[in-house]
Structures are given as C-alpha cells and as structure tokens.
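Researcher: Re-running this chain for the archive, since the previous output was lost when a drive failed. Same request as before.
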Amino acid sequence: MGIYVNPGNSGFAEIADADYVDKTMLIELINRTVRKRNKLTCVSRPRRFGKSYAAKMLCAYYDRSCDSHELFDDKNIARSESYLTYLNHYNVIYLDITSFVSAAGRQEISFREVPNRIVDALRDELASMYPELPVEKSLTDLLIYCVEKNGGEPFIFIIDEWDALIREAKDDVTAQKRYLDLLREWFKNGNFTPKVVAVAYMTGILPIKKDGRQSAVSEFDEFTMLDPFDYAEYAGFTEKEVADRCAEKGMDYGEIKAWYDGYDFPEVGAIYNPYSVMNALRTGKCRSYWRKTSAAESLKNYINMDFEGLQSTVARLIAGEKIPVDVDGFQNDFETFESSDDVLTLLVHLGYLTYHEEEQVVQIPNEEVRIEFRQFLTQKRMNTGWITLIKRSQKLLDDTITGNSEAVAAALKEIREEQYAPQFYNNEQALRAVIKYAYFAAFGQYVKIEEMPSGKGIADVVFIPASLSRLPAMIIELKWNKTSDGAAAQIRNRKYTASLKPFAGNILLVGINYDEKTGEHTCAIERA
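Model: Regenerated structure tokens:
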C-alpha cells in the first residue's frame, strides 16, 4: 500500500462505524460508468457536505491492495448485482489536492510547482511498485506501462478537492493553467484515457473551471449544487435519514430541520448539511457548526463587492426573500465576476444560498447560515454602502419601537423609492416585500413569521424577540387603499395578540397602509 497509489481502506474504516449514514449506493452509480464512455465524473459540494467521505469510500471499495468485504458486506451496496464484480478489483490512484497545496504553502514553494509535485509523487510510488519501470519515461508513459504489466487493467482515479489549487492560486493564471493541463493530459488524451482510466471521480467545491463558455476539461459529467441529477441524494442527508437518526438519538426533528434543512433538490426533496447534523446529534445541541475559518471572511468579501444592486439584493435575502438569479455566466472560479448574479451563484456553490431550479431563484437556506450572515452584519470592516443601509433600517426599527409613526411612514416611502422598488407596486404583496426589506435590520434581534395564524385570523407579519429581552413583540398588518388606523384596529378586533401571551403588555400593533392616489404610506402604532 502507498499514499497515492493503492492507499488501502483505512480512511473509510475510520468513518464506517455505528453512526455512519449509509451512502454506499453511490458506488453503484460509479460502477455503471466503469470503462464506459461516461466514466469521468466530477461532483462539487460545499465544505462539510461529505465529499472526502465519499472519496475514501470509493477508494476502499475499488483498491485491490486490501480486502474490504468486512466494511461493505453489511452496507446497502452489498445488495447490488455489481457489488462483487468490482470490489477490490483495481489499482487506485488517490490524490487529495489540498495536501499538495498545503505542503507548497508550508515550504514556501510556488503554486506553479504543485503539478510537478503531483507527478513526482506518483512516479516515486509507481517505481516502488514496479522496480523495473523505465524511469526516464514521462508519467503518462509509465502509467501505460503499468497497465500493460497488469494485463491491461486500467486505473481508478479518485481526486479529492480537485479545485484546491484553483482556489488558492486564484490570481496565478500560470499555476492554474499548468494544473489544468495535467488534468487534460490524463482525461482529455485520446490515446491515454481509454487505456489507463477505468473511472475518474473528482470532488470539489466548484465545478470545473470554464475556458470561455465551456468546461476546461469538458469530458467530465458534472453534478453540482445547481444540477445534482442522480447524485442529489448523496449531496447531503435526506429527510428520512435525518428523521431516523433523530429518533435514535431522541432529538427533536423539527428543531434539526429548522437549523440544517433548506437545500432543496426536485429529485429527492430536502437535503441537510451532514457535518452539522452529525455534530448536533453528537452533542445534543442545535447551534451553528459552520466553521469560523476563511469561510466567514470570504462571505464578507463577496457580498461587499461593488456590483450595482448587490447590497440591496443581499439585504432582501437576509429579510427572507427569494431572488431571481442567472447562473449560466459564472466561470467557476473565485476571481472572475461580471455581475451580482455571478457572486450569488458562487454563494450557492459555497453553501451560503440554496438554488430552486424550477423558479430559478436563490434564498438563505436555514438558521445556521442565517447566523453567518448575521455575523457579517456585526463586522466593523464593511463598506460604506452597507453601513448606510443598516443604519437606515435600524433607525426604522427604532422609530417603530418608540411609536414614531410619522417617521416610519416617511422612511417606508424613502426606502421604496430610493432602494427597493418592486416591479409592480400595486397590491399588499408588493407592500409586504417592501416591509420585509425595510426591516431587515431586525434580523438577529427578532424571529420574523409571515401569515401567522392567531386569534380569529392570520397576522400579516409578526416579529418575535429572538431572546429574552425588553424588545417588544410586533404585529404588522398591511392595507392597500384603506387606512392604517383600520389596520391596527383589525389586529385588536381579531385578537392577533392571542399567540403572543408571553409578551402581554409589551406588544406593538403596527398598521401600515399605502394609498395609490396620493402615493403615500401611513402608519399607526399602538401598544397592547
């Protein structure tokens, strides 16, 4: 066994314990491609979504240098007709590109040398396996030689975090080109690929970088957070998997769902963040397990980008809206941005947003990710546009709490006209959109519930203090071409406060009306 050639099954053995959520039927999908025309697969997922687990699982299954029956005989894949056909049948080349990138950083070596380091590492291990290798030949020639020595059996290539170099060398075009040329040499070479590659499985955060409008290594079938296709159920945990684990651990499934659900694929429905779910089940506590590393810093950098309308768009996302996005122009890297759509598409790949394919919209998926956006709003190093936006929204919230109804009405008009104008401002739904946007500073201080059943009807928008504090609960009733006083009266008459008994004596009744003839907003605020 080696490090890069036939590394064995110990990596998967460490994770295939009692708490392992069985995702082994992914192997069946790959088995269907062995030595077929569609044998090149690239799966991209955010951090913490189990990419490396899958790569280690495939390595343990295919690697001929070990016996993995004990690891897989009790798993779902054992019921597949192809199970024994390919189990421990191939020589495997396993590369974790982050290890090469990290080594280059520690040794202060140019990222341009990483492709050479990869080639040298493979040459050294192949030489130890086959002492008679003609070492003067190129790596591709050596791999062809090894296949011939092995009776024509090609290699399984498993490349984890394939895009680590693309991410880290984001400003070094030469380093990126050298690395992509290496991948092309292996997987886009008409003489080499059919002979040497039985299957290639790559994982990454990003899809394969584009060369213009096409993938730089175009032969790969790609399965992304935008288009997972058959790989959707392996993007994370399904609802059934999470519900079953909650029952086993005695945890509240509804709470887990609120914290970690939100990634939605038509093929399988809701998908959960595996890393966070497993931590919540292990500790018994729902909280943000989103790692406070470069991810949070990158979020700040991306949503601070100075594209027209981006700050307003992010504010609308924070307020809970779904935002239309064109995902086709994104170049699958961290430096080529031509529009706010490109930034939002990147945030989908990073897991900060979820994409609904049918509607072609994005939104913040769950409470865990909302906390990351909340962290962004509390950082000091924001550009002046964000500071102005937050101050304006916070002042509106403060004026509401202090009962300054005239200031609230004036602010709503200003915000609608200057910052956020729905395409059609002609009904209560359009007014509701403005309200959500205008009060986005309440995010973190309040939990916002729309159309909450209460008393004898349904309250339009309810803000409940997020923690035990002196902040009042707020019920907002919206009217169109009526009166704000009438809106406030409706809250009283229909007893919308019934669901807020813990806040009795500290509830604001906020009626807001828009008059099409005058073009004015009016506001009435009462305390109950």
